Amino acid sequence: MTLVSAGVGAVIATASAAFLERGRWRRESRERETTVRRVLYGEYLACLSEARNGFRSLARDTALSVQDRAVAARECFAPCYGLRYQMTITAPPAVVEASEDAFRRLRDVRDLAGEGALSDSNVYAQGRGRYEDALTRLRAAMRIDLGADAG
User: Fold this and answer.
1) In which domain of life is the source organism classified (predicted)?
2) Residue 93's Cα: distance from chain center in Å?
3) CA contacts within 13 A on the Cβ side of 37
4) How far apart are CA 15 and CA 21, in angstroms?
5) Per-residue pLDDT of the chain (151 residues; tens, 9 = 90+)
């Protein structure tokens, strides 16, 4: 009987250890995935911000030709594409949707700056406002995904 009890105890201990290890593995895996998304989100927001600052400079520059302005606007925006694609395969659907909207609204600002709209024009201000609204929604979706708003 003692040998059977020892065997049952060993099985229970092994099963408990495996169960606890699996739980720890899942928790660590979720934490790694969250870290990957947090880094990607930060890089994406920084890239959008850099492009936005480039468009702001273009919209204030009255000396550039239309052709040079269009080229500069495209160059400012080009780095956003790679991170956009990373977002679409890494982020959950709600974040991807908000990300795509912010991307498209910033692309509209790129087009305005590239076409010669100046920073004090109504059309540029409206485009910038639509982008800022989309960016606010994107940040909120990111915060929810990362659990930053849980309190």
Assistant:
1) Bacteria
2) 12
3) 24
4) 10
5) 676 676 666 666 676 666 666 666 566 667 788 899 999 999 999 999 999 999 999 999 999 999 999 999 999 999 999 999 999 999 999 999 999 999 999 999 999 999 999 999 999 999 999 999 999 999 999 999 999 875 5
Q: What's the full length of the chain, in residues?
A: 151
Closest to 47 (Cα-Cα) out of 97, 20, 81, 16: 81
Amino acid at site 115: E
Read off the pTM.
0.81
Do residues 95 and 87 make contact, with C-beta atoms less than 8 angstroms apart? Answer: yes
